[in-house]
């Protein structure tokens, strides 16, 4: 799918943050508050986990299928992490932006860098959720579910990469103490994006 930037009328809200930052909770809350908000479903080559639903949590594909999509330029952005591919399909975003919708996408640092080259800056707000240092995030991860030392180390390395994305953000939301304040700040991002949509 070719991107005709002149036809983009909506606004893309990019949210990025280290794991355990609460970005998923912020997004879920915003979807309930703003009924017209569109959330993209990423594509991944990783194995489906218990409780996940294909087409709801991710579009699950094989590595070969993902690589085929890369070859035909189906992705707006994509990245590899821990041996698995993750990407955002153009079909999930571009038609909605052309229809003057506000679209929320959660992506990796590499993905943000790719988006900066494709989507006009006046139609995109990059939001970073800061939830404090690694030790606090590590404690949340351990409390949430059983996790191996290898998985923790992989997440630590990912945290170090994700933290580098903070300077790219237009908005930084602090979610270290009061979630309601962080929630209100994210709602403001969505409200501002709605104002920027141009028919």
- Category from helices, strands and their pairing: alpha/beta
Distance between the termini: 22 Å
Uncertain stretches: none
CATH architecture of the domain at 5-40 and 99-196: 3-Layer(aba) Sandwich
Largest β sheet strand count, sense and barrel closure: 5 strands, parallel
Strand order, sheet with most strands: 2-7-1-8-9
CATH H-level superfamily of the domain at 5-40 and 99-196: P-loop containing nucleotide triphosphate hydrolases
Reading the helices and strands in chain order gives: EHEEEHEEHEHEHHEH
Helix content: 40-55%
Look at the structure and give the mean pLDDT.
Answer: 87
Overall form: globular
- Number of DSSP helices? 7
Strand content: 15-25%
Query: What is the tally of beta strands?
Result: 9
Account of the 3D structure:
Helix 1 crosses helix 7. The chain has a domain at 5-40 and 99-196: P-loop containing nucleotide triphosphate hydrolases (Rossmann fold). The chain is globular and about 50 Å long. Strands 2-7-1-8-9 form a five-stranded parallel beta sheet, with helices on both faces. Strands 4-3-6-5 form a four-stranded mixed beta sheet. It has helices at residues 23-33, 63-71, 90-98, 109-115, 134-144, 149-163, 179-196, and strands at residues 11-16, 38-39, 43-44, 59-60, 75-81, 84-89, 102-106, 124-130, 171-174. The two termini are 22 Å apart. The model has no long low-confidence stretch (mean pLDDT 87). The chain is α/β, with parallel strands linked by helices and 199 residues long. The longest helix has 18 residues, at 179-196. Strand 5 and strand 6 (84-89) form a beta hairpin.
